[in-house]
Write a structure and sequence with these properties.
45% helix; globular; D-Maltodextrin-Binding Protein, domain 2; three-stranded antiparallel beta sheet; Bact_solute-bd_prot1; four-stranded mixed beta sheet; coiled coil; signal; Extracellular solute-binding protein; alpha+beta
């Protein structure tokens, strides 16, 4: 997008962050929150692992420092791991090396690393702190606590103040206009696309409506991928290292996507959609925001975009929207694979500053912090429930309605066996085969069979190349150690070629 668009977004975020901090100060000064903790004359130190120092203080650090003014915070940025320009093949090992070198007290990890760090004994359990301080976890999103405990073998080793989720947005006015019953919670992809086909498909490209579409472009591959992801389908079985696409489940997913495209009810933007232009041109390209798309998958920022679009569009026509939980896997309609906890904060197992680390974690996951942050959408949905109930008059209840899917079949350890090189090469094969399907030169079944066969060849070669590279690295490592022991003084850091990319 244009630089103007990026700058406008940045100014908007900074303005909201400033307001949030000011509100936090007002809350504390007005005595609306708990009284500041009694501080001792002894200053405490806290080293926090985070991806960016500036954003850390905007989002967490400044508010925490006002509440605990006896703690000196140092941020060690994980961005430093990428500055050498080298490709990190084993992200988990690189993270452990970073932790060992920097020794942060508070660790920021994702859900996959969290589970492995727990099993490797790298994190300190929080249950004793929670019991000691009588810390209330009852109003934290129950699904989050459940997930963290399951990944922690029944104990809590971390907490996440925010999470990211998706839901189905729909245009109430369009459903009323065409006499179509609106979608309901726990909706499946089959139901979404069946509803989409009930909307008219006539009219020119500048005025017609669409039953369904994505906010930033859509093609057959994208839609099939979204359906298969919701239903937990994997292109590769990491236990057998076999490409598995020629199955009934995959056929259903691709046929569902293909039939939806054939019906003309799904929006397919020309040339991939918006690539640059004015703010007015950007919002015109967002058909759901313009009232020309009946349904789309979105997050809370969709509400923010809807609010802001009226400021840039001269002929903007307001419309009512509804939000329902979904899409879901019909085999497990109470859960969602589209709920993510990206910032889980934990305490390093051997941290000498555990009490200060816990003070930080309990503060950013507490009610006082939630009261301040509930005024904006910045940072995601609040895990501490009861504060971010609505935005611009629209309820956020749908984002809390489902539980995150604890999908062990797609765990970090299992999926990390698949080489990175496989995905890049397989994508080209997939696009080629789907193009043949759209051109009516192949059936979905024939395309999937070809994708499976060609994909297996690619996977086998990627595994072979990975093993050869690892063998070479081991040889180089042994040679380096030999040189070092003989007085050469040579030290070489070897990065294993194990993949960590998940499907």
């Amino acid at each position: 997008m244009l630089t103007m668009f990026s700058e406008r977004k940045n100014r908007s975020r900074m303005r909201k962050l400033t307001i949030a901090v000011i509100c936090g100060v007002l809350v504390l000064l007005a005595g609306c929150g708990p009284a500041p903790a009694k501080q001792s004359d002894v200053r405490r130190s806290l080293k926090v692992m985070f991806w960016d120092e500036g954003y850390f203080f905007q989002q967490y650090g400044d508010l925490f420092s006002m509440r605990y003014d006896d703690v000196d915070i140092e941020v060690v940025s994980t961005n430093s791991m990428y500055r050498s320009g080298e490709v990190i093949e084993d992200q988990y090992k690189a993270t452990l090396d970073f932790i060992e070198e920097q020794k942060p007290d508070v660790l920021m990890v994702d859900s996959s690393s969290y589970e492995k760090m727990v099993s490797d004994g790298k994190l300190m359990e929080l249950d004793s702190f929670i019991t000691r301080d009588k810390y209330d976890t009852e109003t934290i999103y129950p699904a989050l606590i459940e997930m963290l405990k399951e990944k922690g073998a029944g104990k809590l080793y971390g907490l996440s103040p925010t999470f990211h989720g998706q839901a189905l947005f729909y245009n109430v006015d369009l459903f009323n206009k065409y006499g179509i019953d609106p979608p309901q919670n726990n909706i499946t992809w089959q139901e979404i696309l069946d509803l989409a086909r009930r909307f008219p498909t006539d009219g020119d490209a500048d005025s017609r409506v669409y039953g369904y579409g994505a906010q930033y472009g859509m093609n057959l591959s994208n839609l099939a991928s979204m359906i298969s992801s919701t239903e937990g389908l994997s292109q590769v079985n990491p236990d057998t290292m076999k490409v598995t696409l020629n199955t009934d489940a995959w056929k259903r997913a691709y046929k569902l996507a293909f039939d939806a495209f054939e019906s003309g009810s799904v929006y397919i933007p020309e040339d991939g959609g918006f690539t640059g232009g004015s703010m007015e041109e950007y919002y015109k390209s967002q058909l759901f925001l313009m009232g020309r798309m009946a349904m789309t998958i979105g997050d809370p920022y969709t509400l923010q975009n809807l609010k802001e679009s009226s400021s840039y569009m001269k002929d903007f026509t307001p419309f009512e929207i509804g939000i329902v939980a979904g899409p879901v896997d019909p085999a497990d309609p109470e859960t969602s694979r589209n709920i993510f906890f990206s910032d889980i904060f934990a305490i390093r197992a051997d941290s000498p500053n555990a009490d200060a680390a816990w003070d930080f974690i309990k503060f950013i996951n507490g009610e006082e912090y939630a009261k301040v942050k509930s005024r904006t959408l910045n940072g995601g949905l609040l895990s501490r429930m009861g504060y971010s109930k609505e935005y611009n008059g629209y309820s956020l209840e749908a984002f809390y309605a489902l539980k995150p899917k604890l999908d062990q079949s797609a765990s970090y350890e299992r999926m990390s066996k698949i080489p990175n090189d496989f995905y890049m090469q397989f994508y080209a094969v997939q696009e080629e085969q789907l193009k043949l399907v759209q051109e009516k030169k192949k059936s979905v079944e024939e395309a999937l069979q070809a994708m499976e066969q060609e994909g297996q060849v690619i996977l086998d070669k990627a595994i072979k190349d990975q093993e050869a590279n690892k063998g070479k690295e081991d040889t180089d490592s042994n040679g380096a150690e030999s040189s070092s022991s003989s007085g050469g003084g040579i030290s070489i850091d070897i990065v294993p070629a194990d993949s960590t990319e998940e499907e």
